[in-house]
Amino acid sequence: MTPRKSHSMHAVLVGALAAAAIGFSASSAAQTNIRMGWTTSDSETDPYAIAARYFAEELESLAPGEFNIRFYPNHQLGNESEMLQGMQLGTLEAGVITGTQIATISSAFQLNDLPFLYASNSQAHTVLDGEVGEKLLASLENDGIVGLGFAEAGFRHVINNTRPIHTPEDLNRVRLRVQPSDLFLDSFRALGANPVPMAWSDVFSAVQQGTVDGLEIPLAVIYANQYPEVTDYLSLTNHSYNALGILVSAQMWNRLDNDGKETMRQAARNAIERQRETVAGNNETILNNLREAGMEVNEIEDPGAFRDRVADVYESYRSAIGSDILDDALEQVQ
Prior knowledge:
Layout: H1 7-21, E1 32-37, H2 47-62, E2 67-72, H3 80-89, E3 94-98, H4 99-102, H5 121-128, H6 131-138, E4 145-160, E5 175-178, H7 182-190, E6 194-197, H8 203-209, E7 214-218, H9 219-224, E8 233-249, H10 250-253, H11 258-292, E9 296-299, H12 303-309, H13 311-316, H14 318-321, H15 323-333
Parallel strand pairs: 1-2, 1-3, 5-6, 5-7, 8-9
Antiparallel strand pairs: 3-8, 4-7, 4-8
């Protein structure tokens, strides 16, 4: 379903895009101007930023001078819901968007949020680069968005200021910010936590002020967004795989000729391959940096204990995801 287009959200997006357009230089008629947004930082280790910048580099390599990409990180064009609306309306050309938020317009994307679905990054890549991933991306076509592929932010983990998480019992009554998603709420309630849905832009101050005890988040995003400054414990729960959609507006896409479309698809494939390698290579360094910054880090000894707690969540979301997509994914990960 299409996200609700409230007047206030639309006004925020239109205002942000108008401001962003100031100074956006005119270029030759043959050049395609692309504004690309994401909500996290523009750090060298931020997976969203890496995906966006690699995509631009690959476009320039494949078609020198044909595409002019301008970057708008850190909520400059609004939150992810507003950027999705912008792409649907044709007022924003491209974005790197969290899979959970994409699920607000295509519930099939909830597949990747199923807790403990994937055992490894490579297993997730196999599923998302194959027929299952193609079905997910195709599900966006009727909503004015073209999906070019899945970059990654890696697995999500729990950080908090209450205690290290070794067993499901350690999550009891811990107030965790989760992505605004019923699936995340249901999953963490099943684990005994007190999940709180919250927009990303509000999370750092909420942790800092003690409104929540912590959150669940990928390693690279923890480090790039200074969370060691406000949280004590990092537990490597690997509870869900954070896939990032590289998305473009169908209105912009339809203005490209066939060569331009293929160039964009190939650029996305190349960028995703590079981005995944970079994110994976950064993880060990990031873990060491997080320890040096004062975070206490622990691994989970018995993932099965957590998995047992959330078993019912899979069937609860089967119809929303689609039985064919869910069964195909389960067959590949088993």
